[in-house]
Records
---
Amino acid sequence: MLDEVFNLKLSFWKYILLAYVTLIIVAAFSINIPRIAILEETARNLFFHVPMWFTMFVTFLASMYYSIRFLSTENMNDDIKAESAASVGVIFGLCGLLTGMVWARFTWGTWWTFAEPKMNLSAIALLIYVAYFILRSSFDEDLLRARLSAVYNIFAASTVPFLLYIIPRQLPSLHPGADGNPAFSEFTAPELRIVFYPAIIGFFALAYWMTNLRYRYRKMEYTLQETTEV
Amino acid sequence: MLNLSSTSMVDTLSSAYADRWEGSESIAGADANALMNLLASYDLIFVVLAVSLIIWFVLAFYLIRVDQKISKLEQKILSSPENVYKE
């Protein structure tokens, strides 16, 4: 395990991932897409905007998994992993929110509207995670911080499906996946799916890499802090 | 009117700036190289692709650098005498 973790060379899968994401970006701009009214070429945003949210869900889910695991093991590594995954999730959520705003400006005609449940509720979901980091920063004692933030993190993760899927589906909205507005159904052109599905996998892998980097950095920070205190 | 603009090359510069900017004819046209002609085709969509790829490459390079720096630090901590680093 150790020689794998402390390998100075970049692991092979990272080179594959770099080439893979490059291919995705090239394909996203190069494939022929059907002309869709209002969306026009912005239909290509599907390859970037939607995977941001999917990646956020997956990282938040991973974060919750490590928080639950921490509560049963009390292993600080699990706490650091939960924190790392949550922070990468917030980054991807912010990207989703910002790209959504730009897309909304040119298809709905506004950067932000409080009439749009998916916009507002996704912003609330992100704020819930911002509170997670504020909560973390308010403890001096490591074990206490890890325990309480793990409990909070489980709560935070459980709000996400309600805020981003269940509630928006009950309310009128322009966003796909709302009341009377199909999300990713038979209406989505098959050409778009060819790039969309692989793009999701690429961004998942990128998020894993980013989480791993943050975890390793945090782990060293924690180790240094332990050695200097003793 | 027939709309050929989506498949034909767009020369956005030579007519608009022809009298003001010398050498503007070479942006797209017979004497420009193949890459420049490709970038200037399909309503300039490939210019956006080039911009996006530049951003991606810079970010990817940054990720690789941070990865390598972290690996080096890990090795340093692992080989230090008071090593308490455990997986």
---
Amino acid sequence: MPQTSHSPTTFTLAGTAEGLRAMMPLIPGLFVFAMAFGAAAAQKGLTLVEASLFSAMVFAGLAQMVALEGWTQHWSVTALLTLGLLTMAVNTRHVLMAAALRPWFAPLPAWQSYGALLLLADNNWALAMRYRTQGGSDAGYFVGAGFITWLFWVIGTAAGHVVGGGIPDPKQVGIDVVVPAFFIAILIPNWKGRREAVGWGVAAAVAIGVSFVLPGWWFIVIGALAGALAGGFTDER
Amino acid sequence: MSAELGTLLAISVMALATVFNRAAGFFLMRLVPITPRVRRVLDALPGALLVALLAPGAVRGDRGMIAGLVAAVLVARFLRSDILAVVAAMVAAAAVRFFWP
């Protein structure tokens, strides 16, 4: 079976710049999402500094939105523990995403690989995995794409906090389709045949099924695992 | 311009939880030998994860969402451009919602 062969893992400035550029199409849409979060944080009573720190330190849009739903002014130990567990549950997919980076990042020194993982988010991971599939080996690509995402996530949060309620309804201008459309643009070139048909089909069916049965975001991880196993155990012939 | 202690604690707890998740998957894979089979599963993971993220929202989506996703598939398939796929999806979704709410 032909296996994509990769040159040894590198970490260069040129690769970082390439990842940064590749991420640009998504930045305007991402910025509007960040503004929506900033505005919501303002409504929940977070100060500008708190909201900006929130996005800078946590850098996980879905978890931040979910946490904000139950945000409170007074944090008991129990509430903090619940928040930690909720965050880990919502972001369980990050465990899988980081696992998939192992073959690529393993040769790097630990400070580089774990440092890069701090920038792990859905969009830059998806983009970097496509780059990897197409034969890329420069870890800088992941870092560049992650850094620009992080930067605009923080700036957008602050901007949204300042602007407050004046943000257009994301649905009306089609902002809510930006991330799904970006994912589709990343998926399409990865389609090679039988293995994708099985893996993606199983992932979709399981995720949809689970989303009707279990509350929360378990459908992502369960659907992804089922699809990866189904795809990985499908042998091309 | 201020930050309250409880809020900072809550944000720190969330930051620790996300860092833990990000590091855990990478660390745990140290213990898993990367056999050809494991590599194929890992190779299949990105596509499966994106599909799992997308599918439930797509089946629950309104006409605008469906139109946007179809536009993204077509543009990505034939023009092979991320930016054009995103723009086409936004335009399609906004247009459908405007003319056919």
